[in-house]
């Protein structure tokens, strides 16, 4: 019997998932590294199973990459089921919607999670294509050498926390750039060619989300993206909602907020300067937009 889907996609924050990993870290401190921007895990059980529950379909605000070490898991993401067994990698970007998930009792996996804000900072806004396609999910089968490379980088990420704050930050960023480019190469070699078989709506949605990543800093209206894609704003909104479970405006606002968060945390610009750079008509409009979408003020976020 087919499961009846919920009418609305729920939302899961990176912090919620990280809090679960912190609990696991207490019992196996050498297998986990959890910060406000990323998490790394090895030999991990299916921590998502206790979290997803009845919330599905659910979309998280972080990218996840996992390689199965033992057992299997079989999530349904964006309407497609990915059965992953030992030696297979699954990449799930922050826009993908998890509709169902099944696990074996002996599942153990290695991987990492990254916030969208951290990925933008890491690559200076010049994102690899796996992150530009915000609903992207793909599976790749690793060779023994690829699996070994992936695991070695993860192990190094787990040990650099012993080097001290400054060295750790620089080294961690470099290692995450390396492992993400490694994942990008897997995508290019194993996945890109079959993408020609995507449906017209899927291609339109992917083109829209990539445009949003490029232009959300200054272009906040659906009309701009519809014109670029040669469709009506109404048609674009309907397709994006059907393909992702979120409205086109939600995608634009979320990308804008993420870019603002990077500026607030990692630049010395005043709020007035950031408001101007992001093409808001006034500082008041900028502040209201940020608080409406994050639940906190820009000033408070910068001070955290």
From TrEMBL:
Pfam families reported in the protein's UniProt record: HTH_18
Residues covered by the HTH araC/xylS-type domain: 206-304
Signal peptide: none
GO terms assigned for molecular function: DNA-binding transcription factor activity; sequence-specific DNA binding
KW Phosphoprotein (keyword) present: no
Alphabetized UniProt keyword annotations: DNA-binding
Top-level taxon of the source organism: Bacteria
Cited PANTHER family: ARAC-FAMILY TRANSCRIPTIONAL REGULATOR, TRANSCRIPTIONAL REGULATORY PROTEIN
Protein name: HTH araC/xylS-type domain-containing protein
Organism annotation: Segatella oulorum F0390
